Amino acid sequence: SQNDDKMKKLKFLALPLLGLFALNAASARIVEVAPGDDLRSALKQASAADTLLLKSGEYALSTQIVQTHDIVLLGEEGEKPVVHFTNFVLGTGARRLVLGNLHIIYDRKYLVYNAGESEVDIDEITLRGCIVNLNGENGASLVLNRSTAAKNRIGRITIDDCIVYNSHAPSHGVVNIGKESTVQLSSITLRNSTFADFVRGAVIVSAPMQDLKIDVENCTFYDINTSENSGAIFHAAGHVSMRIARSIFHLPGASPKFVDAGSGGRVEIVDSYRTDAQPRVRNPYGLKTLSGDARATFASATDDPLDGCTSYRIVDPALQEKGIGDPRWR
Asked: What's the whole-number mean pLDDT along residues 83-103?
């Protein structure tokens, strides 16, 4: 199919997923799920120690999944299974939510969602080796928390070796924490990944954090803050430590703000660059400016990373040698 042809051109790290997400108990099982099986039932019946392994094909989860135990949902190695998700609602009975080697297509605005007074207590949310299509809902985000519950904690959020984009209306962010939220986060890690077509910033944490670490390494960000929103590409309130290394940005807004870490924030920018799409960026914190626009910087950039003609390969040999941006485009 045309979509299969696009996928063949995309590179993902050749890592054994079952080894990365080691089975976490002596009683753990690998439960295989094939197209046509009831994926919702399999998730419900799996124990907290089990790993669900999806065979290649297409799946649909048409209603919300309220997480009551650990979920490790992986696609078999090779062609990524396509899963049409609504969203996960986190609870207090699980340590982790892990999604690996999946092609995720949203049917709602958020993949992980909590609002109102829903309680949250989880150690880990991890996406590794995934394609995530936010699929046209204006304002869609990967993780959203607006819960005002007394118990509201998320440990680590990790996006590694992923492509996150929107095939229709631009999205709002990778992580979006509303100012009314009571959540406390420990860390947000974006690594070896590509993020494209975001109407606002990439990480928006408006609620004050007690001790949050944000680590961005070897990522490519294309068309971020397309609405010329006054918020920063990386915004975090409270006590925050932020490090952005070997990453590249195309920020098309008139005068975007790069980092807003608040009065309690510490920021380190290492070998990271932006195109010269605009004359200035506010709060650059050492973000370097290239001498060309997107067309001069990338081999063939568009908003759709899955388009077979798209390539965010950096054409400057010197930057290539430095290992800047998502490694899949080198």
From this structure: 91
Contact yes or no for 253/237 (Cβ under 8 A): no
Cα–Cα distance for residue pair 193/276, rounded to 1 Å: 22
Q: Hey, what are 257's tokens? A: 């703000």
CB 139 within 8 A of CB 170: no
The answer to whether residues 319 and 273 touch, using CB atoms and an 8 Å cutoff, is yes
Helix spans in the chain (H): 2-8, 17-20, 39-45, 294-297, 317-322
* CB 231, CB 260: distance < 8 Å: yes
* Tokens at 276, concatenated: 């010269």
CA pair distance 155, 146, nearest whole angstrom: 16
Mean pLDDT (the chain) is 88
Return the structure tokens found at 27.
């009683």
Q: What is the pLDDT of residues 131-157, one digit of tens each?
A: 999 876 556 788 999 999 999 999 999
Candidates 115, 141, 116; CA nearest to 200 is: 141
